[in-house]
Design goal:
TPR_rpt; six-stranded parallel β-sheet; mainly alpha; NB-ARC domain-containing protein; P-loop_NTPase; two-stranded antiparallel ribbon; TPR-like_helical_dom_sf; 38 helices; 64% helix
Amino acid sequence: MRERAADPSVRAGTGTVLHVSSPQERLVAQLGRIKELSGLSLRALARQTGLSSSSLSRYLTGQLVPPWEAVVALCRAVGRDPRPLRALWAEAAEAGAAPARRRNDLPADLFDFTGREAECALVEELIRTTGAAAIDGMAGVGKTSLAVHVAHRLVSAFPDGGLYLDLQGFTPGQEPLEPHAALGRLLGALDVTHPPAGTAERAALWRSELSRLRVLVVLDNAVDAEQVRPLLPGAGKSAVLVTSRHRLVSLDAVPPVSLEPLADDDAAHLFGRAAGLSLTEEEAVGQVLRQCGGLPLALRMAGARLRHRPGWTVAVLAERLRATPSRFDAAFGMSLQQLDTAQRRMFRLLGVLPGTDFDASAAGALADMPPDRAAAALEELVDAHLVQEPSPGRYRMHDLLRQYAADLAAEEEPRAEAALRRVLTHYLAQAVAHDRTLPSPHRKDPAPGDPAKAMAWFDLEYVNLVACFDTAVRLGMDEVVAELPQAMRVWFFRHRGTDDQARLLEAAADAAGRLGRDRQRAALLADLGFARAAAGRLGEALSAYETAERSGPDDDTAAALALRIGFVRRDLGDLEAAQAHFRRARELFEKLGHRMGQSQALAFDGWVTLHLGRRDEAAELARASLALADGPARVTGLVTLGLALAPDDPAESQRRLHEALTLSEQHNLQHNQAWCHNYLGVALRIAGSLEKALDHHRRAFELLEPLAEVQLEIDFLHTYAETCRVAGRHDEALALLDRTIELARELGRPYDEKLARAAREAVRAAR
């Protein structure tokens, strides 16, 4: 099995065990029979029913209870009446697995949203008729407010939820979010935990996932059309709402709606609501409106200033605003004047805070004040419209205000860098504390705490943690740079494919080297190698592993490195070198008294020994592995033993492989389930049961498809193609081998390309 699937840090969960008669499992069994009756592959059945193949895979594996419409579509595909399944479907849905998890990431709607009736009506009509609209206009004109307001009005028409993503097109101190990373976050919101490596593949998967959902997607703060284009939904009932300071004229499928500053009547109404007054001083009100330029942000702040000064008239406010040449400085500066010294300092420092949103503890670390005082200061800033609170306890700043605060900090905060260092230290301490509660093979005794809450914290703060890391690099804070990726180690493992991981680890290893921490550098390089291997970059992975070996690793890291180098050598086709490293890993794990490590090393030693043609020796190594392993750690040994026995004892071979599959299902290890199905196909081919073998190969690919796991795909393609060749399906075999060659070239795996080319020649000769 591949390293990532067999890694002992995979946490056990609840798998699909069809012999247990829960409502959901009975429904899964019925859906499986429907698929068998169809005689179609997962992709073909998905096309026929109009479902996405990834969603269909989740229905068939019990990860989601399908919507009733999907059950009807599946029944109709095989000419069956769906009505007998209605009660079972309702029972499964009621038992706890909802038909689909409704997600709503939309920020809170503004309670004082004013005017814009024509623009709201136009945007709503475009969403209903074309499924898309792009709101453009100058900074501060209210684009995001309008988009969020309309989204809240429409979201009930989108039963699968509302997604919101800030593309950071004009956020001070932030680079615009690249489409590749944006697609990763959007797919993550749809529970796609392992997105494909390529941007085009991610975009295709995103469109596929949305094709059978009805989701409203708000893409806020886009820098240009090229950033947005890969993020647009394709066919289906989902819709997208985009905001940008630029008119996105080249997005033909996304009609533009341009916002102008508020007309005087609407501006006066909003100003009056913000001030909490019935306005009678028409001339003074007109002066305030002109000074604010019809911008909702400036109007709210001016109104808040007047509300906090009950002794002032509108004329006094207008006079104060006229004293400042810039309308932005006038509105923003007036709001600052109503705050005390500590609150004004908090505002200035928030302009240099890395990341997007934040909580009171981060603001407190930044301003060097206790969280309760920081929370009170933030409430005053919210009341003054200087800070937004999009959800309870989470705060953010409008881009204009962030830039204004940063400019003030540059002029008035000589110790702004010290504040930055405090907040970076704060985030590192928080990450370390949450990481310690997470179970890991590298940690014998996790700290008390709720692992689910810890993972949720990392999910929430991930963007901020990356921004803090980049700031630490800029400031030369090697301590933070070296330690933060290690504190995110478990989170990164469970979110493999995260775009930032390799970049962070590389910089962290360099920082550890500068600090003279050789063992820490070795551990970081080992993780870097793992990230590169997971991305299919085997040469770079091997380089990182070998550098780590030369860096003086501790005993645990040295043993893990030997195992991981064996994986890379195996994938590069150097089986003898792989075997030597697996045996070295076994020796090191044995000295450490690490039974699971010994078991893994023995199992993979058996795997390469089998592929070297020594079946009896491979079987003994597999049995030795099984004697040391418990639970899902037995899977690799069972598969190796099953394949070793296949030519001489087909029944025992298949029993062992089914045992491995059952373990994988019980522990919800989808990579391992796919692996077991693939090699059940091999064992059945050896036994002469070619149709059953092909069924298992197809099932392996069905399970693999939503995982976007190209390295496993190469392995499966080799074996599936050989089964097709033996079954006389020569055209299918050639297509599979052509795909193998394409992938091998992309991933730099000449050994796999050589094998596939030789197999292709054999198939052509047999036609």
